Amino acid sequence: MLLELLEGTVSTSANRLALVSAERVWTYADLANAVEKRATELATKGVEPGRVYVIDAHAEAKTVIEFLAYWRTGASIAPLDPRLTRLEKSRAVEVLDGLETDARAILWTSGTGGRPRGVLFTLDNICASAEAVTERLDLGSENVWLLSLSPAHVGGLALVTRAFLLGCTLVACGSFRADIASQLIEGEGLPGSASPVTHMSLVPTQLIRLLEHRDGIQVPASFKCGLIGGAHASPDLIQQGLAAGWPLALTYGMTEMTSQVATTVPFEVKQKPGSVGRALMGTKIKIDSDGQILVQGPTLAPGYVSSTTPLADTEGWYHTGDLGHFDEDGDLWVTGRRSDRIVSGGITIDATHIEDVLCEHEGVQDACVVGVPDPEWGEIVSAWVVPTGDGLDLDLLEGYVQKFLGEAKRPRIWVVGGEIPRNANGKVERHRVREALGLEARKAD
Question: Cα separation of 221 and 198, whole Å?
Fold first, then answer.
């Protein structure tokens, strides 16, 4: 379907810009020719329909053409993050070796707990996701999207497929840099007749970098939407973005659902900063008795690599492991993950709430809260905080915390310093944070 739509765009709008790099542009006619040429080369080299091929997935035009060319041959793709170590890549290749599947793409879950899994996607999953996001955000062929996320992850792959299903323009200039992204939304640094970037998908860390780089400069009116997802965005960060004129939309999603599950539109964020809105077209959401978010719909992947167990339960629901609730308007609020809850002295504590309180302090740029094992309390609340450029007085921060958090919720172990470890999707690698804070706890004993 994707390639058929690409051909349809060529027949009606051959001269419309499809793909832009730092050096050149491709019209839809150019892109179709480049894909056909590369697909012929791949077939000559022995690429076969139904087989899975691993691709180093850079956020570049060459990678985009490679994806489409492999699909043209009938093969499946398994994009890998180029930043993975040789050992990590070899493990992925070993798992996929000899695999034949009807899936058209295999992507790896975020693996914040340290164990990513390969998710199988059908073409129906991919197209359903693109169509649902297009409907929610009222997208059109005049949009110019920046490939701001790695195409080795579901958000980046969704950007690629959504752009070409829409028949709009995709700008692919390499790994995200705040200075370059800022230039692109201003219409600077683009070759030929390329227009300014109007839309981009961002993880919260990328929004932080853009706000720092632009230092209060308002975004131009031509920029229509900054789609924020991949990880929790604190209310303070959202307010900073809105104050700088960013038309933000918040989204909640996951790899297993081919990216987005629920998404707001920009004007809704001003009304309800923090809500992720309602389910996308075709998707259903419910909350179980434990507060866990369950989802179902046409974007739900059929399963994992090397597993015969479907992702959905017998009634078609996928149990996300995320916690949330609906407000009186039916909008969804995501409050954390079940695995992130801390139980200290018999009290269940929401780590996300503590992180939000910490991030509202003027000296804190970023924060992550985890539970560290403790022989007396079971777990103790521990925090890794990243100070702003003005520095951070820990004594003052602890005094601030006492005003907003009960005694059981106050961090007792602190790490103050460098960036919190995150994966390519912007999600915190909590197992690494827990290891670092556990080491600090042992030092304190």
Answer: 9
Q: 406: which residues sit within 8 A by CB, 6+ positions away?
A: none
pLDDT value, residue 423: 78
Alpha helices in 79-153 (DSSP H): 86-96, 123-137
CA–CA gap between residue 41 and residue 60 (Å, rounded): 20
Indicate the pTM of the whole model: 0.83
* Token pair 């602190």 in the structure block, residue: 414
Going by C-beta distance under 8 Å and a sequence separation of 6 or more, which residues neighbour residue 285?
A: 261, 262, 279, 293, 294, 295, 332
Per-residue pLDDT reduced to its tens digit, 301-356: 999 998 888 999 999 999 999 999 999 999 999 988 887 888 887 787 888 889 99
Interatomic CA distance for residues 369 and 386, integer angstroms? 12
Kindly state the DSSP code that residue 187 receives in the 8-state scheme. Answer: T
Domains of the chain (ranges; CATH) run: 2-335 (3.40.50.12780), 341-444 (3.30.300.30)
Residues 132 and 297: their CA atoms lie apart, in Å, by 11
Residue 112 has pLDDT above 60, yes or no: no
Instruction: For CA atoms 234, 238, 244, 249, give the dihedral sign.
Output: positive
Amino acid at 124: D
Residue 209 is inside which H or E element, if any?
A: helix 204-214
292-296 β-sheet, strand order: 284-287, 292-296, 318-326, 332-337
Q: Which amino acid is at 16?
A: R
In whole angstroms, what separates CA 379 from the centre of its chain?
Answer: 30
pLDDT tens track for 358-401: 999 999 999 999 988 887 788 889 999 999 877 788 999 999 99
- 142 near 168, Cβ under 8 Å? yes
Instruction: Residue 333: name the closest of 291, 297, 282 by CA.
Output: 291
